[in-house]
Each structure stands twice: as C-alpha cells, then as structure tokens.
Amino acid sequence: MPEPTMNMPEPEAEGIIHTEVDITPLDLGGPTIADGEKLLEVDDVTLRFGGVVALDGVSFDIRKGEILGLIGPNGAGKTTCFNVMTGVYQPTSGGVRFLGTALGRRKKFAITKLGIARTFQNIRLFANMTALENVMVGVDAHHTTGVISAMFRLPKHRSEEDTGYRRAHELLRFMGLDRRADELARNLPYGDQRRLEIARALATNPSLLCLDEPAAGFNPAEKIRLMQLIRSIRDQGYTVLLIEHDMKLVMGVTDRIVVLEFGRKIAEGAPAEIRDNPAVIAAYLGVDEEDAS
Amino acid sequence: MSTSTAQTRKPRLDFKDRVAGLPKPVKIVLWALFAVFLFALPLLNIPFITTEDSDFGGVLFTVATYVLVALGLNIVVGYAGLLDLGYVGFYAIGAYVVGVLSSAHASLPWLVAVPIAIVVAMISGVILGAPTLRVRGDYLAIVTLGFGEIVRLTLVNSQWLGGARGITDIPRPPGIELFEVPSLDWSNGTPVVDLDNTTTFLKFGIGDFVPYYWLALVIIVLVLVFDILVKNSRVGRAWEATREDEDAAELMGVPTFRFKLLAFSLGAAIGGLSGALFAGKAGFISPDSFQLLLSILFIAAVVVGGAGNRVGVILGAIVVSYFPERFREFADFRVLVFGLALMVLAIFRPQGILPPGRTRRVKRADEREQVLEEGLPDA
Amino acid sequence: MQFLIDNFAALTITGLAIGAVYALIALGYTFVYGVLRLINFAHSEVFMYGSFAAVWVVMILGGNVSGSTGQVIFWVAMMFVAAMLMSGFVAVVIERVAYRPLRKRNAPPLIALISAIGASFVLSEAMGLREKIARWFGLDDTLRDYVSNSRNNVPLPTIIKPQGVFNLFGYEVTNVDIFVIVGAIAMMIVLDQFVSRSRLGRGIRAVAMDPEAAALMGVNRDRVIRVTFLVGGVMAGAAAVFYLLKIGITRYDVGFILGVKAFTAAVLGGIGNLRGALLGGFVLGLAENYGSAIVGTQWKDVVSFLLLIVILLFRPTGLLGESLGKARA
Question: ipTM of the assembly?
Fold first, then answer.
C-alpha cells in the first residue's frame, strides 16, 4: 500500500466523516415497504418487574424513513422500551410487530437478523477487538460461514469475507473511523467509540436503527455534528429511533416525537406540537435546567 | 498504513516485524529450516537443553502433547472465554476410546480408533456443554471440574474399563521402516555424528520415542493450521465477541450459545485427539494418568503463555511440561517450585508470557499516536 | 436399597457431621466470592494447615485417651485456638501474597485463579516436604515426631473415645457426632449474627453489594477484604478440628478434594449466601451418604458432582439464591 503518511496533515482529534460514501441498506431479500408505512408497531406493551411497572400500556408506531425521537425524564422507560423491542425483555402483556410479523419470543440475535439494530447508552463495544473487527461482527450477522467453510477456505467463506470487509470499511469511512480501523476499540477516544457503536449497528444492515443517547457526554459542537450525521444516515435510507435527553437537539433532528413519563406515553406528535404540549412541559418541569434545555 | 512510518523511525524493529518484512521466498526457507530443526531436535542432543535423566525423545513427546492440549484448550478459554477446569476429562475419553476399541473390547488398528476417539470426545463435549453453557461463566468452571472428576472416578470404578488397573496392550501407530537417522554425540564438547545411536524412520516401537514426537509434531502443525484458518473467520470473530460481551454480541446478531457450544466441542475434540495420541505412545492407560491436577496444569499452560495468543500458549505448554522434566534433580520440589513460578508470573506478567498479539498491536498504535503528537522530527 | 433403609440413621448422622464440615469450609469460599467475585482456590490449604496445627498442639500437650474430662475440654479448646489461629493466619497471608498484588494491578480474574492455584501448590507441597525443609535447618531430628513421613497420613492422637449417647433407630449417636453437628451450627449462627449486626459485617455486605458505592461511603475495601479472608480462614480452622474429631487423620493433600466438595456445597446453597453454605453442606453430606448407600461407596464423589450439575441446571443460583449482597447480573 502506498504511504500517504509521509506528508501527513496535522493530526486531528476526529477523523473526517465521509457522508458521501454509499452505505444504503443492502437488499437481502426480506420484505420491503414503502416510505411512510408502518415499520414497527409497539402495541399496548406493559412490562412489570415484580411490583414495579416499567412500561404501562405503551403504543406507538415507527414509519419507514423517519427519525422518531423517544424522549422523557430519567427513569421514564425509554431504554426499557428499547430492550423490549430488541428482545432483551419479554413484555408482560402486549407485543411488538416488525414489518408485519410479531416478534413474539424470538431470540435477540434473530431479531437483529430481522432488521432491528441498536447501540447502548453505556458503550458496550468488544473492547479487545479492533474497530474493524467490531464492525465485521455486525456484518457477520447475515453470514453463514461455519467451521467447515472457514477451514477449507471454501468460496462461501471467501466471498463473505470479501464483501464483509469492503462493507465494514465503507461504514468506518462513513463514520470517519477509517484511520482507526486497526486499533483496539478500548483505545479509541470516547467520541470515536460512540460512532463505532453506530457503525457496528449499521453493519447488521438494519431496517430500523435504534440509538440510545448517542450524544451522551458530547459537547454542544460535537452534538450538532452527530445530529447531522444521524440525518445523513437517514438520508441513505435508514429509519432511526433516537433516544435523547437534550430536548433542543431532538427538536432539531426528528420528524416526530414520542414522550414517555413513568412508563406511560404522555404525548406524540411533530416537534412543534410537542414543544407546546402542556403535559410535556409539566413532565420536564423540575427536571434539571441542563437536561430540559 | 501509517504503522510502518512510525516503525521506520524506531531504531530497533522487533523480531516479528523484521520477519514480516522479509521477501516471501526467504520467509518460506526460514520456516522450512525451523521445521527441520524442530524435527531434528531430539537427535541433535544439544547440551543443556537435552534432559539427561529421562529419554529426551519421550520428554519432547510429552511436551508436544501439552502443546496440542493447550492449543485445544486455548480455543475454549482464550478465544471463547469459557473457563474449563475439566479438560482432562476429554483427554481421558480420547485415550480410553482408543484403549477400548483397540485392546480391551475390540481390536481395531490405532489409526481407525483415533477418528472415533475424536468424534466421541466431541460428542461428549456437546452433551456436557449443551446444558451447562447456559449457566453463568464462573459456575462453568466448577461444573467442568466436577465433570473431570466424574470421568476419572467412572474409569476407576468401572470394571468394563479395566478399573484402577486400566487397559494394557494398546497397539502402536502403524510404521514403515525406511531408513535410519543418526544422532549427534556431544560427549567431547563438539558434535560428532553418532552412527551407532540411530532412530528408525518410521518405527513406532518401545524404547525410542522420537517417532512419536514426530507424529505429534505433524498433528500440531495440522491443528495449528486449522486454528489459524478458523480464528480468522466469522467463527473466530463470533467467539471473541462472545468473550468480550455476551449480551452485546447477541444483540449484534451472534447466536452466542451456538458458538460457545462449537468452541467447547472443538476443544473437546482436540483434547480427545491428544488423549488418543498419548494412548498410542504409552501402550497402557489407567485412571492415574488423568488426575484432576492435569486439568489445572493445562489451564496453567494456557494462561501462563497468554490466553488467546497461540504462540503464547505453545510457549506456556512448553514451560509447564518441559521445565519439570529438565530439572528432575529437584524432583521432590518440582510442584513447589512450579507453584511459586505460577504466582510470580501471575503477579509480574498478568497477561502471560506472550500476551495476545492485540496487546502488542495496541502498543504500536500508542507509539504511533505519540509520534503524531510530538510531530514528525524528520519531516 | 435395603442397605440404605437398614442404616438410615447412621447415614443421616454421618452425613450431617461431614456436611457440617463442608459447610464451615464453604463459608470461606462464599465469603471471598461474595466480596471479590473469585474462587479462592487456595482455601483448601487453609483448612489443611489448621488441621495440622490442631494435631500438633495435641501432640505438644501430650493428649491421650485417658485424660480427665477437664483435660479433654482443655485439649479440644487448644485445638480450636491453634487451628483457628493457623488457618486465619494462612488465609491472610494468601490474600496478602497471592491476591493483593493482582488487585493493585487490575489483573483479569483468570489470573487471580492461576495465582491462587500457585499458592495452593506451594502451601500443600511445603507441608508435604516438611521433613526435607526441616533438614535444611538441621531440625529434622528435634522435630521428628512432627515432620517424619511427611507424605503420609498423620493421625490425631485419640483424646475422646466416641461413646453412644442415645439410640436413634438402631444407631448409637455418639458424643462426637453431637459435638460436631451442634458445634458447627452454633458457629454458623455466631457468624451470621456477626455479618448482619457488627460494623465490619455491614462493611462486608456493602462491599459485596457494590464495591464502588461502599468505597464512596467510606468503607475501607482493603480492610474489608482482609477481614473476609480472616473470617473464612478461622471458620476453616474450626472445620479442621471438627473434621479431625470425626475422621481422625489428615495429610498434606487432604485439602484438595475437601475443598472441591466444600465449593460444591457453597454453590449448591447459593454462593455468596451464608445460610446457603450451611444448607448446601448438609444437603451435600446427606446426599453423598445416601447416594453411596444405594450405588456403592466408590461412587460417593460422583454422586456429589452429579448433584451439583443437576442443581445448577435447574436452579443456577443455588438452593437459597445468592445474597451476601445481592446477585449481580
């Protein structure tokens, strides 16, 4: 490989984000729907832990091609909602339908294969694997290479490895992480780790990308850049569900917003409607200035 | 990429980089020379390295068995992160399948019994793993410990398996006697070819264990190739992801249970293979050969060397098996010194002798970072 | 089966007595696991050193079978003192030498296990080689009674003749049986009170529950860990005395299989749970005695390991659940 580094520019804290890279979802032959139709339906989901009601009859839809914001004060059940949608918890009653089929008691990895991917509020990368390998694990979700193919380097292994490698590199480039590809995830700077989580989730080729507070710990400038990035992800053809604390940020980037409080849905609508909704204002009153601003 | 820029500035390249930088034909020749050296090792009789009190060929065979076992266990412990304290159970199963099929209850040739032993060990891995791999990680350790003991006690108590006396007259691997290989004699300080002391290629007899060592080496190479190919694939990545964070792996589409079971049974298969090899060399097996202590030594080999790094675990296996043989004069204090060594190593090299390649790669990345921060002195 | 029915009382009493010993050793595993989340592999040697201290102190005091009641009480009391001191000391040394340096370096848990295995080898071999080690110092003659045949069984001089106290369905329950079972339960109750009432006990529970929060609340983690090892060691010392009174012999490698059994008992009851250790010990002691009566004594250990596997499959948190702090997922 030629050495581009001999006249290297000033090192940057962040890599250059290449939103022009084509990362549109691959067509793997699953069911497809048109933009604006219901992608995922949360139908009257209730979840109890012992005596505690974490979610109480929550219903909402996510439509293809939109960025839906899921907001609410701390402990409102946002992450719990994610956990129900990704199969971590089974709802006590009610259910989730994705692309028209009920998720039911599907295993977590099977739900991912169906097309729901997520990131974590507290980063959970594979710390001792490189950035590239982290993304490759995501790409592998749709691969079927087993021991036999790997052992004899059968064509299946080679083609999957090949396309997977290329896809992973495109995603890293899109996220501005291509120069970090061979570094261990745990050695990446905080912001890169957050974006690597998104790259890894995108690698599973999701119809629905769920981001759990992806901007947590970012400064305002970084937050804005991330929101632009999320929008360009959507523009490439993904549907995004975004949990975010920062109201202003959510208002700017989302198409619609669902508000939870104490496990109940208290409002749903366009950002402008939510801003003026008295119930939402009440819910956010008494919350820290910083959180609500 | 920019890694090498940082390196050109470094005055000293580490060994691995220097080897990696050589042209391909040179590399092939070097590897071939290394292989020849390994095969010739028992005949070179190099002073100091060679054990004086016990047959060096036999010692090398033991070392090779440990290496094989460590490679198998590394898949389970190092790659998939499952702490298996009962690995000796699979080793015993492999040996006993060969014993039963070739001596005690049938008289299949060794070569036919070995694949069956591998398959049986693998199936027992699945049977043990399927229910237990769902329980929490630290419990797996104790369940497997129990499994190792159950296997041994079953061997002791089952008359069908020879009870405490074990199984004798296990056939040797088939040989072809082609030519004699001389060895070196160093008794005058300089090496002299000793034509009186030769090894027959390829005769698996008693008294000269060198051919068994050769056989073990060949098997190690095969297992190594298998290891490298599988590790560098979707399977290896799935193992590592599971080890790092099982829930996150599952949510990224890795069927973690299936991959844990796969690692467990592949490890079991390699354990069974090692046992079968041991039975073929010893000609005689009894439950005493499969003490629980052996499981602990196997684990120690993997962790001492650096779990997850195959070169590391090979070194670890050599340390654990060779040094006690070499320093037999301290035979009584062997275990004591070994225990001390384990403690010292754990405290001063917690990543093992050779940490996983990653850690070194990380170090390099850090150096690169430093260069970036300090600017480029000669640019 | 007939054997089981005919000897049911005998098997039950023996099972409870040996189960009590398992339970006391299990405490050490449970305690350390609760606080540090690791299997203290060297705990078995803590027990072994206690058993030797107990034997030696009786030899020094010239204990014999014809002692008066007062003498016997004194000997047994001295056995407890010696064994508990020795075991407590060894446990603290293990923590200091094999664990603390690792903790300071944030080593992965697997490494702690290796270090503990190393410590276990060193301790048991040092005892097994005591004759040779004494020779280095020229003490092998002076200490002959204590160090000769260091790789063989060492019997406890008989100081109590087991006497039947009452008859239970045809089995004479002896004074030793009663002493072991009642004594062990009493120790557990004291310990349980210590953990739930005392300040140190609260510290232990706090660290087990959430080490970081405990540190923020001013709990000295290093001190708590040291106390944890000490308490586990002292209990193992007591277990050693009960074991000697019931079984009568010890040896340098007695710890290994007993340790594995005791760990089994701890997991059986729910590791990290004190009352679970007691229950697990009794269940294991009874199960292996009943089981071996049915399928033959040579299968005794197989029975206990199978029991462990079955329990873990159907109740992975053990019989009583894990609750020194609370189970962390």
Answer: 0.88
